[in-house]
Amino acid sequence: MTTGAVFPAETVLSDGSVYRVVPVEAGVRAIRVWAEYPWPMSPAQALALRDRLGWTSSPTNERMFTTDHDLEEKDASFTTIKRGQTVGSFNMSLTSRIPKPVRAEAVPTAERAFDAYVEALTAIYGQGARSRSRGVLSVKWTLPSDTLVNIGTIGRVVSVDVDSPAGNEAARGEAQYFDEIADENDVPYPPDGADSGR
Question: In angstroms, what CA-CA distances link 103 with 74, 94, 191?
Fold first, then answer.
């Protein structure tokens, strides 16, 4: 994999702050550990995975992690569904946060990092579905297990979400529910004076 040379892992910005990008090989390795897990995953199994990766939990919330990716912040977390019995999704930052005045300086590096991650994940999972919504550029892959891997970028921030099969199913059910409500609200009312069948 030659993607490590595409962008610097650390860029010093004009105010002296450092913009960090997780090297592609390290980021992809972590993504695969979560995405290719034999689902379903319990919270206890997620915490065991955290330990296996050498990450640490926040003292106030064990579902928020500081990884070994040197972003110097809590940069990964998981959520649960089904009354906390099952992990629904996992999120991980692939770039660090930076002060607002110099954010624009990081955009070119973030774009190259995003492209490198997409290239690496495409080599593993095949062609993903690319989309842009409200300024968020993303690429999604649905794995044979029905796990969804979604990498996205908003300007200078690149992150990845892994939705478990159960989380993916719940999201589809919610979308269908809202589509049905929208359809019901779109039913035209009979014109005034028309027989409504009552």
Answer: 19, 15, 55
Which two structure tokens, joined as six digits, stand for 187?
């039913």
Q: Residue 26: what residue type?
A: A
As a whole number of angstroms, the distance between CA 59 and CA 64 comes to 9
For residue 74, count CB atoms less than 10 angstroms from its CB and return exposed for 0-12, middle for 13-18, buried for 19 or more.
middle
Q: In this predicted model, what pLDDT tens digit does every residue of 92-148 receive, in sequence order?
A: 999 998 888 998 999 999 999 999 999 999 999 999 999 998 878 999 999 999 999
Give the Cα separation of 17 and 36 in Å (integer): 35
Neighbours of 105 (CB within 10 A): 17
- Is the pLDDT score of 180 beyond 80? no
Residue 81, H or E segment: strand 76-81
Angle at 56 (CA atoms; ends 55, 59), nearest 5 degrees: 165
CA-atom Rg of the chain in angstroms: 21
Cα gap 198→58, rounded to integer Å: 61
Kindly write down the DSSP assignment for every residue of 91-158, as one continuous string: EEESB----GGGHHHHHHHHHHHHHHHHHHHHHHH-PPEEEEETTEEEEEEE-TTS-EEEEEEETTEE
